[in-house]
Amino acid sequence: xxxxxxxxxxxxxxxxxxxxxxxxxxxxxxxxxxxxxxxxxxxxxxxxxxxxxxxxxxxxxxxxxxxxxxxxxxxxxxxxxxxxxxxxxxxxxxxxxxxxxxxxxxxxxxxxxxxxxxxxxxxxxxxxxxxxxxxxxxxxxxxxxxxxxxxxxxxxxxxxxxxxxxxxxxxxxxxxxxxxxxxxxxxxxxxxxxxxxxxxxxxxxxxxxxxxxxxxxxxxxxxxxxxxxxxxxxxxxxxxxxxxxxxxxxxxxxxxxxxxxxxxxxxxxxxxxxxxxxxxxxxxxxxxxxxxxxxxxxxxxxxxxxxxxxxxxxxxxxxxxxxxxxxxxxxxxxxxxxxxxxxxxxxxxxxxxxxxxxxxxxxxxxxxxxxxxxxxxxxxxxxxxxxxxxxxxxxxxxxxxxxxxxxxxxxxxxxxxxxxxxxxxxxxxxxxxxxxxxxxxxxxxxxxxxxxxxxxxxxxxxxxxxxxxxxxxxxxxxxxxxxxxxxxxxxxxxxxxxxxxxxxxxxxxxxxxxxxxxxxxxxxxxxxxxxxxxxxxxxxxxxxxxxxxxxxxxxxxxxxxxxxxxxxxxx
Length: 571
Known about the structure:
The protein is α+β, with helices and mostly antiparallel strands. The protein contains 14 helices and 21 strands.
């Protein structure tokens, strides 16, 4: 039951979106039913069931108690029950996967809750089937393991929903066990994965579910801190900075609308005008586009599950639009001056762990900049030094007038083995020299090192511009500084030479990238020093696996040879 003082405009918007979403599901649901196992669609089937249930039970919906929904709802439930293994789990990316099953369980438990509250006689069979699925899933979730940090809280949320309807002490104990590990929140508000995607879609929703359990109210503080951090990561167009993420979104665009209802909940709960302003902006944005990966119509079920979300928002406050924000735990700096923003990043995991892998921050972009509609998506530096790849800062420091990034990398040449470790049969252990493996018994050899030291000093200039001073010392090697602009603009400059598809070399003077009335002027060119044609060397760890780090967009290369100093201006 929605509160009497609910926001009618908000609810009408969600209802209209849910009805449109339901129509799409009704058109395509039959195909989904035949592909649950072969294509891992248990999660999408559960979400479809949840959305159809929301428009069936809500009295303001055109589908309210519409018998035309019953067959699709029952067939979705029957298919999910048929594909559920005896241990209560589904195949969804991994065989018999507890965390992937938890995604579906959260949706099905929410659907069962609103259907049960509605208690319409026509859904009795549907409710019975969904109840059987949920009861069967509980033990597997209460004993099964997880893969990632956010999976712990997702499984807890799934168990909490089942436990609320059919209490089982083992479910409560399992929740306690996972929560006893402590929430993986960093001092700046990010979670350990540093991922906007997983914060919005998994961790925050799960913690909010758990926070409603008596005695768990302190978890609200974790979500509040994460949303507060998000105020400084958000671009004027609604994108969220993710260069520092340790997950897949470190090289993908993420949009703030995934956080929409979370900002709305805390605006209402805390009377926070800033969060109300964010929620209002996202509502406006949502009228013209989908809410990130989650269609707006899928959200009606959440409001029916938590009617307090339908209350009116407090008076919108002022969002931060002029700030310098430093998150030391992520080694990330965000600067905003009205329509101009910049990101400085020096916090990849590569420098410390000497590895590039799923779950690690490895994006070599160390600077981004926006001037209105003009977007410099990435600035990267790639020396051709022992195939070690891009410059990735070992640290980020505050200077008197800006910021300092720095790194030192070393490559080795190996000396002959000492007499005591030589073998006549030449059969030496297969060992790692730090960048490749060989049967050379590397640990017992003396090494002759080559070194490359890089320092980047970044300074904001009046009008939203930046000066970047580069100093590279040590071994003489070619390098390429790569600027990549978001497509959609016009690149001009007399000193530009095209060297590939959408790729140019700035040889002399300045160049300009323009979108509408906005532009970024950058340079100067640095001649044709370095390797010709220019090469951006991603490193052996990518090349060996056939990988690529070439960003999408309009690329401009500025090249040279170390040791060198160079000053890049962007204004």
